[in-house]
Amino acid sequence: MIRNVKRKIMFMYFLAGIITIAVLVMFFTRQLEQVNLTTKVIEDIQSNMITAIAIASISFVVIGAFIGIFLSKFIIYPKDKLIKSAEKISGQDKERKLRKKNETEKLDDILGIMTKELNEKLREVSTQKNQIETILLHMTDGIIAFNMEGEIILINPAAKNFLSIRPEDNTFDDIFSKFKLDINMEKIIYLENWTSTEQRIQVDDKYVNVFFAPFKNEEDRPDGVIAVVQDITEHVKLDEVRQEFVADVSHELKTPITSIMGYADTLLEGDYDKETQQKFLNVIATEARRMARLVTDLLTLSRYDNNSSRNTQKDQFDLGDLVKKCQDKLAIEIKKKNHTVDCFVTADVPPVYANKYDIERVVLNILTNSIKYTKEGGEIKIYVGFVYNDAYIKIFDNGIGIPEKDLNRIFERFYRVDKARTREMGGTGLGLSIAKEILDKNGGSIDIKSVVGQGTEVVVRIPTKSN
User: Fold this and answer.
1) How many CB atoms lie within 10 A of CB 252?
2) DSSP letter assigned to residue 377
3) 254 within 8 A of 246, measured Cβ to Cβ
4) Phi, psi at residue 466, to the nearest 5°?
5) Which whole-number Å values give the CA distances from 248 to 19, 67, 418, 434, 436, in the listed order?
6) CA 333/CA 425 separation, integer angstroms
7) Of 15 and 280, which is predicted with more confidence?
8) Helices (H), 139-222
9) Helix (H) or strand (E) holding 367
10) Which range, 135-144, 210-219, 352-361, has the best average confidence (pLDDT)?
11) What angle do helix axes 356-372 and 431-441 make, rounded to 10 degrees?
12) 423-450, pLDDT tens digit by residue?
C-alpha cells in the first residue's frame, strides 16, 4: 500500500514536470513566432532554449530523484515500517484475541461443567441435609453434637425434651453439669477406652440413658462429641414392677409356707389332743388353699401375658342370666354378712359376645370384693343394661370405699389398699389385675369410682355380637 502511494507521488511529480516543460516550450515557440527575428538568432535562441529545457529536465529529474529518496527514507520507509509493525502487532493481537477467545470458550465450558457438577453436589448435599434434619426431627432418641470447644452444633427436639434444655444452655457443661456427672469432654475424647461413656440420669420424673462417643474428621483426629439420649423411664418402671412383683410373690408364698411348716412341725413334735390337732390342720388347710389360689391367679396372669388366650373360644350368651347365677353362687357369703343384694336387668339387653368363663370370673371377683369390703347389713345393687352397642354391669355398694390416691393403682398386681385387711380376708391382690386382663382380651373395659366411707361403683362394659 505504501509503495503504491510512493509510485503515485513520483508519477504525478514527473507528469507535472513534463506538462510544465511542454507548456514552456509551447509558450516560447509561440513567442518566437510572433517576434520578427533573423534565422540565425532564432536558431541560437532555440538552441539555448533546448539547452535550458534539457538542464531544467535534468534538474527536475535530479530533484525528483532526491524527492523520491527523501520520501522513501524519511516518510515512506518509517511509515512502511510503522505500518508493518502495526500489522504485525495487529496480527499478534488478532491471534492473541483468537487464542484468548478460544481459551475463554474452553474456560466457559469448564466453568459450565464445574457449575453443573457443583449444583448437583449442592442439591445432593441439600437433600442429604434435609433427610438428616427430618430423621433427627422425628427420632424418638435425642441427639446432641458438640464441637471441640464444647459448643452445641446440632440438637433435635427429643434431646431438648428429655434433658429439659433451656434456651441459655449452649455448651456441654451448661447441659450436663447440673446433673453432676463424673464425665467431661476431655475424658470422652482422650480416655475413651478407659472411661465409662454411658450415664443414667433422672430428669424430674423421667429416666434417660446418655451414651457419649467422640467423632473424628477426615484426618482421623477428634472433631467433637456426640451424645445419644434414650428415654428409659418405661424400662426402669417395668424393672421396678418386676422387682416388686418378685418380692410380693415371694412374700405371699413365704407367709403360708411358713405357717404350714410351723404347724406341721408342731404336730410332728408333740402329742396333742384331737381338738388342737384339728385346729392346726384347719390352719394348714387354709394356708394351702391360699397358696393354691395364688398359684392359680399367677398362672392365669401368665397365660394372658403370653397371649395364649388370644384364641379363646367366644360365645354368645345372656349377660343378665350370668350375673344372676354369680349372685346365686355367692349366696352363702351374702347371707353370712346379712347383705341386701338387688339385681336389675334392663329390658332388651342384647346377648354379649365373649368368653363366658372369663366374664363369669370377672363378675364373681367384683361381687366378692363388694361382699368382703361392705360391712354387715350393707346394700349391694347390680344393674345390667345396654348403651352404645355395649352391654354393661354396674355394681354399687355402701362399703368402706377406696381412697382417691389409690384408685389409679388398684389394677396393679399385688397392690392392696389395706394389705393387712386384704390378707386377713384371703385376698391375693391379683383379682382386679386379672379382671382387667380378661376384659382387655375380650374387647371390654372396667372403671371404678369410690369415696371413702360411702362406697364403690364398678362399671364393666362388654361388647355385643354386633360389634
Assistant:
1) 21
2) T
3) no
4) -65, -20
5) 148, 137, 14, 16, 19
6) 12
7) 280
8) 157-162, 172-176, 185-190
9) helix 356-372
10) 352-361
11) 150
12) 555 556 777 888 888 888 888 888 989 8
C-beta neighbour count of 287 within 10 angstroms: 19
Strand partners, 450: 456
Q: How many CB atoms lie within 10 A of CB 256?
A: 21
**For cell 475463554, what's the residue?**
104
Between strands 222-231 and 142-146, the pairing is antiparallel
pLDDT score recorded for residue 383: 92
Residues 6+ apart with CB under 8 A from 436: 411, 446
Q: What is the pLDDT of residue 67?
A: 65
Average pLDDT, the chain: 78
Residue 97, C-alpha cell as written in the block: 484475541
pLDDT tens digit sequence for 72-112: 666 665 666 666 666 676 666 677 777 777 777 887 788 88
Question: DSSP readout, 83-148?
Answer: HHHHHHHHHHHHHHHHHHHHHHHHHHHHHHHHHHHHHHHHHHHHHHHHHHHHHHHH-SSEEEEE-T
State how far the Cα of 340 lies from the Cα of 343, in Å rounded to an integer.
Answer: 10
Quick one: CA dihedral 115, 119, 125, 128, positive or negative? negative
Residue 320 vs residue 187, higher pLDDT: 320
Whether the CA torsion 151, 153, 154, 160 is positive or negative: it is positive
Answer positive or negative: Cα dihedral of 387, 388, 390, 392: negative
- Cell 370377672 locates to 362
CB 164 within 8 A of CB 178: no
SS3 label, residue 213: strand
- Beta carbons of 326 and 393 less than 8 angstroms apart: no
What sign has the CA pseudo-torsion 428, 432, 434, 435?
positive
Question: What does the block give as the cell for 228?
Answer: 445419644
Residues 374 and 380: beta-carbon distance below 8 Å: yes
SS3 329: helix
Give the sheet arrangement for strand 222-231, strand by strand: 152-155, 142-146, 222-231, 206-216, 198-203
Please tell me the pTM assigned to this model. Answer: 0.50
For 261-312, the pLDDT digits (tens) are 888 888 888 777 888 888 888 888 888 887 887 787 777 777 776 765 455 6
Cell of 380: 349391694
Distance in angstroms between the alpha carbons of the first and the last residue of the chain: 111
